[in-house]
Amino acid sequence: MRLITRGDADGLACAVFITITEKIESIIFAHPKDMQDGKVEVLQNDIICNLPYHPDCYLWFDHHISEETRNEKVKVGKFKGKFGLAPSTARLVYEYYNDINLKKYEDFLSVSVIRDWHTSFTTKPLTLITSATYQKIHLQQPYPIGLNERDAGRFNRLSLKLEYNDVHNEKYRRYGQYFSLTYQQGLFSLNSDYASKITELEARYYYRLNALDNFNSRLFAGFAHDTPFNHPFYEIGSAGTIRGLDNESFSGTVLLFANLEYVKRFSRYPSFRGSLFLDVGNVYNGVNGVDFSDLRTGIGLGLRWKARSLVKTDLFVDLAYDTDSGNYKVYGGTSLNF
């Protein structure tokens, strides 16, 4: 039995629950658009979570209400599994199995309601993603590490994300471009303690240099006004921002950075790739504090392995050097930085 799920937090939570309750032999991560386009092979014993419905699957779980308009079987309930309006797909999986072994994960469930709106007025790969999120910090001594500098309260918000995704997946690499604009607004009408406004822009490019090699880049800009919990919203010093710095070593309300990466694939071992990367950027306190002469830089090299046996995912190890402090950092994980 295989599990096909989305590679986000909700999809991973589903994977945790289902691997506890079912005998899963392999896990496959897929993008919703690839499922809709029929690019993902689905077998009769497969379980699908947090992805569009496929008639060949054994069980299906999803909370995106737009599936009712896409598929008649979903509308009339002719499928095995669970579908409906819920804070997350993981919540539906949890309710479906009602297994005592899942009780310890009560507090792990997502508290966001998300809906994808795929545009039909254009042939461009545009998606509008709307979400409502409930977030609460309750401080009780001894304070958890990382919360002792924050105020208690609720940050309940609505989010809009316009996404242009024209990235294509080959067997061992990607090519194309991706752009997104995200806006989050805290609302007192939703019983939020903060009316914070957060705006983020992201651009990614995956360029094929030749039959084996790629040049990949990412640009990111984020601005948070009236930050929630009276704590700087952005921090740098991680595999997802600027590598080489101490974790969360700098914080602020404006984040600007760029990642540049040259990826070399080995012809004899195509699932392995080497990389050279450069990360540049910084975090600032307010727009007026932005200073492009004050940038942090991390350089390094890494190794990537695209696993395609038991679990289809990307494994990576990076060695990064902070040019300012002279420190080295090692990063590793099961998903690429961008």
Structure, described:
This protein has 338 residues and is mostly beta strands. 11% of the residues lie in helices and 44% in strands. It has 5 helices and 20 strands. It has helices at residues 9-21, 32-36, 67-70, 72-76, 89-97, and strands at 2-5, 26-29, 47-49, 59-62, 81-83, 112-118, 126-133, 136-137, 153-154, 157-169, 174-186, 197-208, 214-225, 234-236, 250-252, 254-265, 272-284, 296-308, 311-322, 328-333. The chain has a 16-stranded mixed beta sheet that branches. It has a two-stranded antiparallel sheet with strand order 8-9. Strands 14-15 form a two-stranded antiparallel sheet. Helix 1 packs parallel to helix 5 (89-97). The radius of gyration is 21 Å and the shape is globular. The two termini are 30 Å apart.
Please describe the topology of this protein.
Layout: E1 2-5, H1 9-21, E2 26-29, H2 32-36, E3 47-49, E4 59-62, H3 67-70, H4 72-76, E5 81-83, H5 89-97, E6 112-118, E7 126-133, E8 136-137, E9 153-154, E10 157-169, E11 174-186, E12 197-208, E13 214-225, E14 234-236, E15 250-252, E16 254-265, E17 272-284, E18 296-308, E19 311-322, E20 328-333
Parallel strand pairs: 1-2, 1-3, 2-19, 3-4, 4-5
Antiparallel strand pairs: 6-7, 7-10, 8-9, 10-11, 11-12, 12-13, 13-16, 14-15, 16-17, 17-18, 18-19, 19-20
